[in-house]
Amino acid sequence: MEEQQVAGTVPADNGNNKKKLTSLQKRIITSVCYIVVWVAMCALKWCVPAGNVAGGWGSIGFDVCFTAVSVLGAYEFMRAISRSESGVNCKISYPQHAITMAFCAMAVPLYALVEMAMEGGLLAISCAFTAYVMFLAATSVFDHKKSSVKGTIYCVFCMLYCGVLSALLSAINHLGENSMAAILLVFMVPVLTDSGAYIIGSSLKKVAPLKLAPQLSPNKTVIGAVGGLIGGVLAAIVVYYLMYFLGGINGDVFYTRFNDIFLTVRSETFPPLVSFVLVGLVTSLMAQVGDLFESAIKRECGVKDMGKILPGHGGVLDRFDSMLYCSVVILISFGTII
Fold first, then answer.
1. Fewer Cβ within 10 Å of end Cβ, the chain: N or C?
2. Number of C-beta neighbours around residue 89 at 10 A
3. CA distances from 9 to 19, 140, 319 (A)
């Protein structure tokens, strides 16, 4: 005879009734941790005197972050390629895999060390990338049964996408001038671009439902992309006035100058604020292109997320794809119009 449950009693909790965090809660927790770490790295960069070192010794915190992006991003990319249907005929040997991961692991430290010692980081990265590509080609030739041309091309792209672009982020971090403003743009423009695209896109999608790239990301709309551009411009304006109030511009100090962190704008093409608006606009555009390209990679590989290391956000490339693309625009901009 089955034992009947006594009325008024509570069933025993075997661990199955534990509350689980929702996806939104995970995203919020991860975002808070992300902001705390970012603020700490900014404070380290701002507070530690630069001395004669490009970017200052306080920049090392960001270098560690960019190294992690490079290594974990490369791991996620190579794993996605190896598991995808398109990778069935894409043979990548163990030496090729090891060479790719090794380059992505040393790209940022190599740039940072050389740049801080003798200001030749870009040359060092260029030489290292060339050497590693030659090693990849050699392994493809001498171990052709376990590798393929297609697999070699994927490895080269991984080194460019994860390793070289992460080194460009380090180059922004070690700019001789304006590195603080540039690094703020690197982090703030993609975030406000995503926020602007989400807020405007979700609010006006019924009024303007035109899809931006339906085959890659069905939820993205043209009006949302416009909202992203607005968010990127707003981020650039915030960075401009933050630097103005806390550091000053071209010797004009609003309140105080701390550790010589200030803007030096020598370009006469545009006024400083207009320059930042233009940089924010183009950087926001590239951030959205980077996000769509990452969606194309995931669709090609047949995966929803590149990884699970960031709860609620996916993998490292899911979070930092836009930032990697932004590095090129910001680095060029701070060498030309700012």
1. N
2. 9
3. 21, 69, 47
292-316 tens-digit pLDDT: 998 888 888 888 888 888 877 788 9
Per-residue pLDDT tens over the stretch 234-292: 999 999 988 888 777 776 766 656 556 678 877 778 888 999 999 999 999 999 999 99
- Nearest CA to 280 out of 200, 180, 203, 191 is that of 191
Whole-model pTM: value is 0.86
d(CA 157, CA 228) in angstroms, rounded, equals 27
Categorise residue 186: left if φ over 0, alpha if ψ from -120 to 50, beta otherwise.
alpha
> What separation in angstroms does the CA of 2 have from each of 5, 12, 191?
9, 17, 58
Matching residue, tokens 């290391």: 309
Give Dmax over CA atoms of the chain in angstroms: 91
Q: Pick from 87, 132, 196, 158: which is nearest to 317 by CA?
A: 158
What is the residue-wise DSSP string for 40-90? HHHHHHHHS--TTSTT-GGGHHHHHHHHHHHHHHHHHHHHHHHHSGGGTT-
Q: Which two tokens stand for residue 87?
A: 């990778």
CB atoms within 10 A of CB 266: 8
Compute how many other C-beta atoms are within 10 angstroms of the C-beta atom of residue 60.
Answer: 18
Residue 17 gets which letter from DSSP?
T
pLDDT tens digits, one per residue of 146-182:
888 888 899 999 999 999 999 999 999 998 888 889 9
Which bin fits 286, alpha (ψ -120 to 50), beta or left (φ > 0)?
alpha
CB 229, CB 223: distance < 8 Å? no
Angle at 100 (CA atoms; ends 187, 141), nearest 5 degrees: 150
CA distances from 269 to 83, 265, 337 (A): 49, 10, 7
Using alpha carbons only, how large is the chain's radius of gyration in Å? Answer: 23
Do residues 159 and 70 make contact, with C-beta atoms less than 8 angstroms apart?
no
